[in-house]
Amino acid sequence: MNAPLKIQILIGSTRQNRFSEKPAQYLFEELKKKEGLEAELLDLRDWPLPFFDEPISVGANKGIYVNPLGKKWADKIGEGDGYIMVTPEYNHGYSAVLKNALDWVYREWNKKPVGFVSYGNSFGARAIEQLRQVVIELKMVPMFNSIQIPSEVYLAVREHMPPVSPDLFNPLREGRRGDIVERFFAELIDYATLLKAAR
Q1: Are strands 141-142 and 147-148 parallel, antiparallel or unpaired?
Q2: Taking a C-beta distance cutoff of 8 angstroms, is the pair 111, 198 a contact?
Q3: Burial level of 137, CB count in 10 A (0-12/13-18/19+)?
Q4: CATH numeric code, 11-198
């Protein structure tokens, strides 16, 4: 029997009163309903990586890290077959803590798909645009479909402490663009399946 696909969801903010854990938790619960998948939530608060300071770049270190947490993080990322990155948009870009988490790993990201969920100015479009460039350099495959949290969902969800009611995210499934969550999942799962076979 084939092992289930493992999709890891990264909460890409560690600030107080962050919003990102709310859509991340929602997507995690929705993914768990799908057969043949194993979903995992990775909270960067639980991975207090220093700014990348290894003596050898991760592209050349052959998996050898000075910092044991860096090694542990790389091993954890290596378990994934695909990724969802949830990030705010800060000053026309994505969060610094997410960039640092990306920079600590190289081979373990390679040949795997990644989808993006964002919010904030321009509904997070510019954060996603920058992330696409970075993940291509990591030899990842960025998904065409993304989830940009609209203002009405952001404002409704923001007022609630986690875990929030999944009903607050219904506009993502019932809006004029159709079910963007299912479209997002379908593309990510298709690519994760194909790339896992290719690896």
Answers
A1: unpaired
A2: yes
A3: exposed
A4: 3.40.50.360
